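Question (not urgent): is this output format expected?
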Amino acid sequence: MSLFASQRTEFLHHSRTAPEQFTHTQEWWLPNQTQVVVHAAGIIEFIPSEYEKGKGSHVLYSCGVHGNETAPIEICNDLVEALLAQTVTLTVRLMVQFANLPAMDIAQRFISENMNRLFCGAHEPQHNAERVRAAQLEQLTIAFFAQADDPSICYHYDLHTAIKDSAYPRFAVYPFLHDKAYSKAQLLWLAKAGIQAVLFSESPTTTYSYFSSLQCSVHSFTVELGKVKPFGQNDIADFAQARIALFDLVSVDSSHVTDSSLQGATDPSLPVLFRIKQMILRHAEDFKFHFSDDTPNFTAFNQGDVLASEYDEYGALLQSYSCVQDAEAIVFPNANVTLGQRALLTVVPVTEQECTFDV
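Got this back:
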């Protein structure tokens, strides 16, 4: 097997098949004077030749926090290989993280537990590989953004795909900002990337995007780019806008653009906006939804409609969860989560006028 240190291509492949190659930091310069730093298996950083210490944008793309969410992994892999091959010219300091490599290998969401519930210190104690990896990602993220002088031009996009079909196939979650203003520029960028809806979180969580938003004060989002599909089965057209936007944010080269009709498009309007109304946790083994398994994300219900119920071991009702207002929609339904974790979010529409923006 050829080693990445000599071949210096197929970074993700080497990270998945021979992670022992990456026990020590590797660093070199490409012929175009881009500096490459490999921090660990699946974690690679690029520093452009014109980079001035502390200046300019720092961008982090994370993907594969859930190993079966393949489209963002494929996009990020294409970007990394293009940078290594010098077919794109980097304009920002960039880190790309392929988070849950073992879960990718078995095409599952996770190995032991949901990595996207293990940030903000929730990885303690570190008694499985996902907890160890979450702690490593936290450390590298803090170190990466600490090298930037201006966090207002730094960005973290944690890229996912959803389990369910959706009325808005491409949507993003804006982490809780603790009374800070939302960025309209970021919402417009997300719209340019094909994001159709944005959910404003109303409380702290243990997700990766909330961690970087809180701890690093950067613009950060959980971005859902469509539905889970196996590697090689994603329709490239479904992700064209996202791919273009993610490449364009960090480079000046346009050779990666495959849909010329998207170039020069008029500025987009804001995505449809929602705020999270309820977060329903699973507390009992017998937890059931009152809607079918194939109900899409953003399906709306009315006040009083029962969404979920929990029962004790004898079948007696413990708790029911109902809509508290009309037009309350469901997002991320998953009745099989670990006890104590989120089984469902509900969201309600919000207008631009009801939001506080930074401009």
